[in-house]
Amino acid sequence: MSTTKTIHTRPFAGQKPGTSGLRKKVAEFTQAHYLENFVQAIFNMLGDCRGKRLAVGGDGRYYNRQAVQIIARMAAANGFGKLLIGRDGLFSTPAMSCVIRKYATDGGIILSASHNPGGPDADFGIKFNGANGGPAPESAGEAIYRQTLSIDKYLILDSEDIELGRIGKTELGGMEIEIIDPVADYAGLMASIFDFDKISQLLVNRRFHMCFDAMHAVTGPYAREILEDRLGAKPGTVINGVPDESFGGGHPDPNLVQARELVDRMNGDAPLAFGAASDGDGDRNMVLGSGFYINPCDSLAVLAANAGLVPGYGEGLAGVARSMPTSRALDRVAQSLEIPCYETPTGWKFFGNLMDAGKITICGEESFGTGSNHVREKDGLWAVLFWLNIIVESRKPARSIVREHWQRFGRDYFTRHDFEGIDSARAAEMIERLRERASGLAGERAGELRIQAADDFAYTDPVDGSASTGQGVRIFFDDGSRAVFRLSGTGTANATLRLYCDKYETDPSLMELDTQRTLAQSLQAAGEIAGIAEFTGRTAPDVIT
Ligand code: VG1
Ligand code: CO
């Protein structure tokens, strides 16, 4: 017999969700009561949980399975009616969004710290998605945080672990548990959007070789089933496809630095036509053409411009959206399609309302995240399939598609410079000082450039009117370039400063320039205005994307 226990607890400081849920070191998460407090705070925020239905799963990192067991016991004790769990405790973030929507659960809990490294000495994370399948909006995040500040007890069942490896239904303390295949529903959704027959013809073609790097994270089983099993891509197309608790010791961050193996293969003896990588929880993607890096801002714009080639978007796009630091390449596509383009703060939680209200169909971020209203999350594999569908319909390689896009719309050169592991107090001081000065910067000279306008980005949700302030300082220069400063909200130690920079070019003969050189002057000016060297002690960024 299992019995419900009431455990007395005390609040932990700092359980405030960031850009994408709560992320901390594993050592912090595994302290007695730490995870439990946060989970109970989610349940308290939801109110009366009796009879409610919840989906649970994660990216397979260290502590994923234990966390699923704890959540199951707590859900049963709190009176939930049903729990849907991905087999082995797995769900990619987009698949979770798909499952919440398909089975109309009251929400879902995703165990992931996305691209942050995994393992006993690395990071863990937890995020709550609502009934629409999307990340909890800021107001819900605030409500959860308030609960964590006053929590004094949580409910948990005293019971054996449940079997996570076998598909089927069981019961725990009166709550139904159903273990489901984490891939099937998602794969079915992809098949309903894209032309699988045509993509399959491309992938079985002896001359078209591609590689998908799952980076030892959750996308492996998804990519294998969809690309290799359903679409017939050659065995071995998916590399690093078995989820590992510490992601093979790497950072599952799809960029040129972390996805080294993919990059090497792209440039190897047998050149590949197309390459892609996804992050820890499968919501972000990097796509590469043959010898050609595709900037995520351009990728987003290309998807929007070519959506008409994909069956799922044949009826056209209602509108599009991008996060503020993302380049304005998307805006140019929207203008030509005569559809609205929304500019939101960083993080997927701001897109959900726009999608629910039918205002946008496709959206994305500069950080390798793109998605559409098929779910309420960014979706890495979806973007890869989208690209393949465009390639097969246009009969052009990825590289030509991007080049032709630039010729038609002009090119937005874009880069992001990350200064990692910097002192949190100094970083906050730097941003604070920029904020205070922003409104007075217009007209000032900075190196060779003059500042045309500057502000501290604020956003009012056009659907529910909620306001979000302090979302990044923007500086617009008189040569049409733009610099943006903000601090990362996904790290677990110290601070990371992100400096984003873009510049629009319309001269057809200037479409193939070096990005860093093209943006050097603006980056230099931005660095001087903010005093990056002075505040961070750094003269160069740690990561450039
Ligand atoms: C980063 C990215 C942001 C993305 C977020 C979550 O946030 O910049 O665009 O939405 O990660 O992505 P920040 O606050 O560190 O800049 V994921 O794939 O970690 O869920
Ligand atoms: Co992610």
Name some characteristics of this structure.
seven-stranded antiparallel β-sheet, alpha/beta, TATA-Binding Protein, 17 helices, seven-stranded mixed β-sheet, 27 strands, binds cobalt (II) ion, 545 residues, binds alpha-D-glucose-1-phosphate-6-vanadate, globular, 33% helix, Alpha-D-Glucose-1,6-Bisphosphate, Chain A, domain 3
Gist of the model:
By secondary structure, this protein is an alpha/beta fold. The protein contains 17 helices and 27 strands.
Count of helical regions: 17
The residue-averaged pLDDT reads: 94
How many domains would you count in the coordinates? 3
Record the strand order, biggest sheet: 2-6-5-3-4-9-8
Q: Specify the overall morphology.
A: globular
Structural class: alpha/beta
Radius of gyration, Cα only, in angstroms? 23 Å
What is the CA–CA distance across the termini?
A: 55 Å
- How would you name the oligomeric state of the polypeptide chains in this document? single chain
* Contiguous uncertain segments of 5+ residues: none
**Second-tier CATH architecture of the largest domain:** 3-Layer(aba) Sandwich
> What profile does the largest beta sheet have?
7 strands, mixed
Instruction: Report the CATH topology name of the largest domain.
Output: Alpha-D-Glucose-1,6-Bisphosphate, Chain A, domain 3
